[in-house]
Amino acid sequence: MSRSSLISHPSSSTGRTLLLAAALLWSLGGLLAKIAPIQAIPLEARGPLLACYRALFAAACLMPFVHWRRVRWRFGLVPLALSYAVMNVLYVTSLTRTTAAAAIFLQYTSVAWAVGLGWLLLRERIDRGDMVALACAVAGIGCIVAAESGSANAWGNVLGVGSGLTYAGVIVGLRALRDEDGWFLILLNNAVGGLLLLPWVWSMHVSLTGVQWSVVAGFGMVQLAIPYILFANAVRTVRAHEAALITILEAVLNPLWVWLFVGEAAAASTWLGGGLIVLGLVLRYTVFIPRPARAAPAGSPLPPDTARPD
Asked: Splitting the chain (310 residues) into consecutive groups of 10 residues, what average pLDDT does each group show?
C-alpha cells in the first residue's frame, strides 16, 4: 500500500474532525495508565516499563509512513532524540505518581518553555502572546506544585515539570530540523526513547500478562501513533494556530476520563493551575495569533508551531 493511499487530502471541515479525533485519542493516556491491569504492575517499574514499550509500539506503527529516501544524518538528531527519551520517561512516570490532571497540565507548559529555548538557540523573536503563555505557565506551575508540596503527589509533580521542560527541547529540535522528513523524526524519537529504556526495563524482571500487553500496545499505537497520523492528515488543510488550539482539548479530556472511569479526582489547586496554563495557550492561539512560521516540507506530520506534548 502506498503512502498516498494511507494519507488522503481532507477538506478543512474534515481536517478539524480529524484533529478532534486526534485530541480524543491523545487524551486517553491518563486513563490507560490508571486502569486496573496497569496498576497491578509494581509502582517502581510501572513508569519506565510503560514509557519503554509505548514508544516501541508507536515506532513500529509509524514505520510505513517514513520517506526513507529523504532520511539523512544531522547532528541535531542526537539532542532531539535524547530530549524526547527523557521527556517520555518523565511524563509517563509522572502519570503513575501524581494525578492525570497534574501530569498533563504540567507537560503542556512545554509550549511556553520553548519560547525561551527558541530565543536562546534559534534566535526566534518573542512576541506578546509568547510572554502571556509563559506567565500563565509559571503561575499554573506555582498553583499545582506549591499546593501539593508535602503530599504523596509531590514527586510526580516534579517529574511533570521536568517533562514539560524536556519537551520544550523536543519542540525546538523539531523546529531546527523542519527540513527533514517529519515522520522519520517522530519514528526516531520513539525508537530511541524505547531502546534506551529497554536494558533498564529488562533488569526489573517484570512479566506482563496478555491483558497488560494489550493495554501497553494500545498505549503506543492507539493513544500515540494513530493520533499523529490523523494530525498529519488534518494539518494539510487546517491553519497551524487553529490545529494547536483544537488539540489543547486533550489537556481537558485527559483528567476527565480518569475521573469518570477510575474515580481519580484532582485537587482544586491542580485545576486552577491547569486552567491558567490552558488559558495562556488559548490566548496565544486566539488573541495573540503567532506569526506564520516557515512551512514544513510536504508530508511532515508536525508543522513547526503545532508541535504538541505527549
From this structure: 48 87 96 97 97 98 93 94 96 95 93 84 84 92 82 90 93 88 93 97 96 97 94 83 86 95 92 94 83 52 56
The CA-CA-CA angle for residues 92, 133, 123, to 5°, reads 95
User: What is d(CA 153, CA 105) in angstroms, rounded to the nearest whole number?
Assistant: 14
Nearest to 180 by CA among 84, 296, 261, 14: 296
The angle that helices 43-62 and 182-203 make with each other, rounded to 10 degrees, is 150
| DSSP count for the chain of H helices, then E strands | 16, 0
Rounded Cα distance between 79 and 170, Å, is 8
For helices 77-97 and 43-62, what crossing angle results, to 10°? Answer: 140
Please state, as a whole number, how many other Cβ atoms lie within 10 Å of the Cβ of residue 40.
12
Model pLDDT, residue 4: 42
Count of structural domains within the chain: 1
pLDDT at 200: 97
Distance between CA atoms of residues 270 and 276, nearest Å: 10
Determine contact, residues 194/135, Cβ cutoff 8 Å. no
Query: What gap in Å lies between CA 283 and CA 182, rounded to an integer?
Result: 27
Residue 3: its pLDDT value, please?
47
Q: Which residue has the cell 489547586?
A: 269
Range of the domain at 161: 3-306
DSSP 157-177: HHHHHHHHHHHHHHHHHHHHT
Phi, psi (5° rounding) for residue 102? Answer: -60, -45
Nearby residues of 69 by Cβ (< 8 Å), 6 or more positions away: none
Instruction: Quote the pTM value.
Output: 0.88
Q: Left, alpha or beta for 7 (phi > 0: left; psi -120 to 50: alpha)? A: beta
